[in-house]
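Q: Can someone sanity-check these two? First one:
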Amino acid sequence: MPRFLSLVRIDEKNAPAEGPSEEMMERMDALLEEITKAGVMLDTAGLAPTAEGVRVRWEGGRISVTDGPFTETKEVIGGYALSQCKDMAEAVEWSKRFLKVHDDHWTVTCEVRQIAE
């Protein structure tokens, strides 16, 4: 079965400073348990804020290193999920369910890409 990487993009400026609500985390935990029991989830995690990140870039034969936060970025990768699904349609359905557990004030995008094998 093919594997898929879902990149969870958030707008850090609109994300609540206190993080997800307790109710949202309960919904998230229930969904992650369901996905895991279904044999779909291989790995998932949230990422530290961009203020704690570093970008390494190769351009024009030179390496540059930039410490976060990255002011030129509106949406950042806030987390990821590695899943194994029968096809893209199934991966997208799980992603939709993931997005729906978020509280209404969140702006979240999930980019789903099949892993080239």
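And here is the second, same format, sequence then tokens:
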Amino acid sequence: MKSRTTKYTTVILGLVLVAIGLYPIKTIGDPQGMMRALPYVCIGCGLFGHGTGNVISERAIYGDPELKKKLDIEKNDERNLAIVNNAKGKAFDMMTFVFGALMVSFALMGVDMIAVLLLVFAYLFVHGFEIYYRLKFDREM
């Protein structure tokens, strides 16, 4: 379990990133290049929300050890793990077709070649990992 310091540090770091992201949006008139996207990446990085969620959930179960034990059992239950893994598998199958259609539609719309190639490389990277883990798990089982 993470220490309290780590959780609060995550919240503070998230707030700092949000401030860093908001400052250029308000001060820079017309940014060029990477500075067009960087502020939005800092704002949307999710550290603040993730850290705050961890702090709130820790405080919610702080005084109730029975609830904590029940949640731990539920989280590590084999049935729940099987459901989560099955849902991930279905989402991966859907992602394969959605991203394939998106890449083809971007190519037909004449979107910049770099953007299309980035999507293709990300698509192939994910499927490369799928092949690697399929072979790894096939050897283990």
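A (reply): Looked at the second one. Residues 78-109 form the longest helix (32 residues). The CA atoms of residues 129 and 135 lie 10 Å apart.
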